[in-house]
Design a protein that fits this description.
single chain, about 210 residues, mainly alpha, Tetracycline Repressor, domain 2
Length: about 210
Amino acid sequence: MQKTLKDQIIEVSLQQFLKYGARKMTVQRLVEPLGISTKTVYKYFTDKEDLLKICLTIHYQDLAQKFSEINKNTSSPILALSQIWHEAIKLDFGVNHIFYHDLNYYYPHLQDSVRKKVFKKNPVELVEILADGLKKGYFRKNIAPEVVLDAIEVLYANITRTGKFKKTGLTAIVILENTIDIYIRGLCTQKGLQELDQHNSSIKQK
């Protein structure tokens, strides 16, 4: 099925956002590879932020699918929870660093609204992963899943949206290991800790 011009604009714009970030990209620069005018773009989108919102929705839908696959292909909920946050950090500080930096610092409200909308519909609900972990004895029975996830979000926001840990000179993964990973370990039963330790040990041996 041939893509419509609107679909092509979204696809190319997302590629441009991922490559160059969002702050400095104009509508004209976004669609340069298509050789169309900004006037054509405005037939479908109100402004750059409107286009960014749609691109973000598609991007996070792809991420949701990726996280779903992590959960599906991981042996236990405790490992799934840990690996999803590791994957998120790698994306934030990986090849798309400029893109995520711009989202975190210049479009945080837009990013949050799109993420909440997409992940609310996503079959992989982190609350469900926690509930599954509780049922299987990986997490302590007195934890409140919604509070746990809010706390992790606060830690994650401090890593990605502030310069709080910049003075340490440590990589994002090391900071994650000293914050979110430790917090997750605090939620675990002995069974959960053993699962994490065995997994980490197997990774180091590879």
